[in-house]
Each structure stands twice: as C-alpha cells, then as structure tokens.
Amino acid sequence: xxxxxxxxxxxxxxxxxxxxxxxxxxxxxxxxxxxxx
Length: 37
What we know:
This protein is mostly helical and 37 residues long. 76% of the residues lie in helices and 0% in strands. It has one domain (2-35). The longest helix is centred in the N-terminal third of the chain and has 17 residues, at 2-18.
C-alpha cells in the first residue's frame, strides 16, 4: 500500500507540473493513461 501511495504522489506531481491545476476529467484521464505508460 505504501508503494501504491508513493506512486500516486509521483503521478500527481507530474500532472501538476505538466498541466493547470484545474483540467477537464477527459483530459485528466488521458494524462493518467500517458503517465502510466
């Protein structure tokens, strides 16, 4: 569970750097798909 949480934090950090704080859900889903590889 710790590894999963740290992975989520890492993804959130990448998303925050790449995109505005507020983005549409569709864009968020695309970003998550890209970040997850």
